[in-house]
Amino acid sequence: MDCSKSKLQKQFYLCCLIVFFTRLPSAIADNTVNNPLIRLDHQLFDTIYDADHIGTVPHQLVTGITHFGDPKAVMAISALLMAYGSPEQKETGKLLTTSFALSGLSAWGAKQIINRRRPLDKLEKDTPAFPSGHTTLAFATATIFSDRYPKLKIPFYCGAGLVAFSRIYLGRHYPLDTLAGSVVGTVSAHVVLKYRRPVLGWEF
């Protein structure tokens, strides 16, 4: 049963990767409202984002939530675990640091290749949007923590989902950016977990 479940998971991740690397980038690169997928993406963004929210209590709360996907926050957690944690927590810190590097580089590379403009970036002065870096790191972190502390799997992924939602609510990303980020982060973390033995053998 476990073998069958593992095989299904691998097939799911493979399908996600195929979609991400073949279908989505071409649609995103097009980025015109004539594309049905992009049109839906823009409509969902317009539904969630509202400039009138700025300065309100919900906006401030969501601004706080979005920082959980910030690279500095993730690295701080990793550093604390490796510096002051128990042997098990130090292993978690190693896995988290490695997944941070892999998922971050993957997201950065995709951003440079696809170069999608952010929703409110009319002058093209901001960094590229696709995929969402905060969402990528949030899901990579949730996947590592879920493996190490399986009883808290649902809260971890709910937290990552809130980070993804916050990126749209704050006007920083379209929904497809966060969807791609969740895939990149989750898959990157699973790659790290698959090769955890050599990762945990590294000294850093």
SSE blueprint and pairings:
Blueprint: H1 2-30, H2 36-48, H3 57-66, H4 71-84, H5 87-114, H6 133-148, H7 153-169, H8 175-194, H9 196-201
Helix pairs in contact: 1-8, 3-7, 4-5, 5-6, 5-8, 6-7, 6-8, 7-8
Give a concise summary.
This protein is mainly alpha-helical and 204 residues long. The protein is built from nine helices and no strands. The protein has helices spanning 2-30, 36-48, 57-66, 71-84, 87-114, 133-148, 153-169, 175-194, 196-201.
Q: How far is the first residue's CA from the last residue's CA?
A: 37 Å
Total strands: the figure is 0
Number of helices: 9
Strand content: under 5%
Major sheet size, sense and barrel closure? none
Q: What kind of assembly state do the chains in view correspond to?
A: single chain
Order of helices and strands: HHHHHHHHH
Mean pLDDT: 81
Uncertain stretches: none
Class by alpha and beta content: mainly alpha
Helical residues, percent: over 70%
